[in-house]
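Can anyone check this?
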Amino acid sequence: MNLKHSKQRDSIKEFLATRVDHPTADTVYMNVRQTFPNISLGTVYRNLTLLADIGEIARLRLSDGVDHFDADTSPHYHLICSECGGVVDLKMDNLDFITEMAQKNFGGTIEGHTTYFYGRCNNCTRKN
């Protein structure tokens, strides 16, 4: 896909690259506004959607109903904290065998999987 260059889109990608907390579009918007005061929330949403659709960022669709975004598009897993709602990366081996197991007794084609783990993050565990 040949996209017209956009300083606003670059700013969104640069902001996400500095974050490991998987921010929402609202958080991205509030921070990108510091550089582009006239940017609209709609522009941020459109650019996040475009970047996710072309694979330059990852969109996490969580049970809170709000999309979160991740600059790290490599295969990895996430923990969703049941206390603070934060999303953190898990450092662990790839679970591709789950896709293979699911494919065994399925007549169609399975192309991948998304797995979220739930528990308490390090900060919430230390607080208690």
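Reply from J.R.: I decoded it. The chain is about 35% helix and 15% strand.
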